[in-house]
């Protein structure tokens, strides 16, 4: 995710001849958005022990495995009314008499499980379903949930829009960390990926975009239904829908990847020109990242560029969402997340430095190549910018491997996360560093990785005892002495 706490996260003075110029090749800074520290059901809340594995147990975070979401959505732009049916293919990991999903905002109208009416109650951000017949461990089941709600502009604890956000010409969805339940009933945890089908019906003349690849659209009366299929399993907070007056374009990237972009037709002339120039860099960025981290992990790429009031970008899987302020470095950040955060995902929000650190380090590598010779934006200069911050700066007050819930999206997670990788590369050498990074990025089938996993892999590949290194850079607050 790109945030906007600073006007430029690596602004530096560069001497060019006798002149001193501010580097213009850096992207908007990161918006410090705390999560919901007082919400006991937030994904970042310390993991609770699972209920005993016995018949009649209630679903907890590890009790369900959702295989697929079929989301049939009908949205009225003028009234902001969303009517949805979620068809959820799931498997209980143990015998269950109740199933617990996350849903807040829209109200549940009815629930059926395996074709039978099911009891339900909704409250406190939860949808508790009581099937007519308890679920048996290991046996597939299908829950069909009908719901409806008038959408607005949900806000996080810092007052920033997220989740399903109603816009003047449609809607935009950015759900990190727990906004998915504002628009569909979700098993909203970091350990459960699923595939998705989206059928989104909107007023004729509007375009609906989602993750994955398009599977056609058709008009009926004054409405149009757009279908998208996302066959790459993803976490619920990475699912997105964009509804608006878009230009929809398609090109082919490296590995034959379809790059599908949806751009708001009503951008100002300057924003439209900047957006076209930035999106034209996607193929080069993908080639660059593939060269560093290995094959692109998904079957599609692209972008949604929409409402500039949002002020931040998000790595929604296969189709990142950008505000109108988009440039090449922002694109590098969000596309790097396709490897780090989307494909290889953390199992706890406490380990978020693994997502943001690799994304910012990717920016540093890109700037080194694209702007280093001309503007002095070298990898060393990027690291030096962070290391130049005084010991009393708030950036050094965060313990990266164990941030508080209010620090999850702190600047330290981003910039110091990248600095850890920079220092690790110096410590273990280029050969072992790139082997480590590509091995880590290649763990596509593993869900819920951790800082401990990364430390173990680094030690195993390098053959070094890195306990002291990680204690200094990850497990301690305060500015390290170098």
Automatic annotation (TrEMBL):
Biased composition range(s): Low complexity: 49-58
Top-rank lineage group of the source organism: Bacteria
Catalytic activity, as annotated: Release of an N-terminal amino acid, Xaa-|-Yaa- from a peptide, amide or arylamide. Xaa is preferably Ala, but may be most amino acids including Pro (slow action). When a terminal hydrophobic residue is followed by a prolyl residue, the two may be released as an intact Xaa-Pro dipeptide
Comp. bias regions, Basic and acidic residues: 29-48
Domain Aminopeptidase N-like N-terminal: 67-238
Keyword Hydrolase included in the entry's annotation: yes
Database matches in Pfam families: Peptidase_M1, Peptidase_M1_N
Protein name, UniProt field: Aminopeptidase N
Organism expressing this protein natively: Kineosporia corallincola
Classification of source organism: Bacteria, Bacillati, Actinomycetota, Actinomycetes, Kineosporiales
């Amino acid at each position: 995710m790109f945030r906007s706490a600073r006007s430029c996260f690596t602004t530096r003075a560069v001497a060019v001849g006798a002149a001193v110029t501010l580097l213009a090749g850096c992207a908007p800074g990161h918006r410090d958005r705390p999560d919901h520290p007082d919400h006991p059901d937030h994904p970042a809340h310390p993991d609770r022990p699972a209920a005993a594995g016995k018949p009649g147990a209630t679903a907890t975070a590890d009790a369900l495995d959702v295989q697929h979401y079929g989301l049939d959505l009908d949205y009225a732009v003028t009234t902001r009314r969303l009517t949805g049916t979620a068809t959820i293919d799931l498997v209980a990991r143990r015998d269950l008499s109740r199933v617990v999903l996350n849903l807040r905002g829209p109200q549940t109208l009815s629930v059926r499980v395996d074709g039978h009416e099911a009891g339900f109650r909704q409250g406190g951000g939860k949808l508790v379903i009581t099937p007519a017949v308890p679920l048996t461990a290991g046996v597939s089941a299908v829950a069909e949930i009908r719901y409806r709600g008038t959408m607005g502009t949900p806000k996080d604890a810092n007052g920033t829009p997220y989740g399903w956000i109603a816009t003047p010409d449609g809607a935009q969805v950015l759900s990190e960390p727990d906004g998915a339940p504002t628009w569909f009933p979700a098993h909203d945890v970091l350990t459960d990926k699923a595939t998705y089908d989206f059928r989104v019906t909107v007023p004729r003349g509007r375009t609906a975009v989602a993750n994955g690849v398009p599977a056609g659209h058709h008009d009926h009366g004054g409405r149009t239904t757009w279908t998208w299929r996302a066959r790459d399993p993803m976490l619920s907070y990475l699912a997105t829908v964009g509804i608006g007056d878009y230009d929809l374009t398609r090109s082919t990237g490296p590995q034959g990847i379809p790059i599908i972009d949806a751009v708001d037709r009503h951008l100002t002339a300057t924003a439209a020109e900047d957006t076209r120039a930035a999106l034209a860099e996607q193929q080069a960025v993908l080639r660059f990242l593939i060269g560093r981290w290995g094959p692109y992990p998904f079957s599609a790429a692209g972008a949604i560029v929409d409402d500039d009031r949002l002020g931040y970008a998000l790595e929604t899987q296969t189709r990142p969402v950008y505000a109108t302020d988009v440039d090449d470095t922002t694109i590098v950040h969000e596309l790097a997340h396709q490897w780090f955060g989307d494909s290889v995902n953390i199992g706890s929000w406490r380990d978020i430095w693994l997502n943001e650190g690799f994304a910012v380090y990717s920016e540093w590598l890109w700037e080194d190549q694209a702007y280093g010779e001309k503007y002095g934006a070298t990898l060393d200069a990027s690291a030096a910018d962070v290391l130049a911050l005084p010991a009393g700066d708030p950036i050094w007050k965060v313990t990266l491997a164990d941030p508080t819930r209010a620090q999850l999206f702190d600047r330290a997670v981003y910039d110091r996360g990248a600095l850890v990788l920079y220092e690790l590369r110096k410590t273990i050498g280029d050969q072992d560093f790139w082997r480590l990074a590509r091995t880590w990025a290649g763990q596509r089938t593993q869900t819920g990785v951790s800082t401990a996993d990364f430390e173990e892999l680094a030690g195993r590949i390098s053959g070094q005892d890195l306990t002291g290194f990680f204690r200094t850079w990850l497990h301690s607050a305060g500015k390290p002495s170098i």
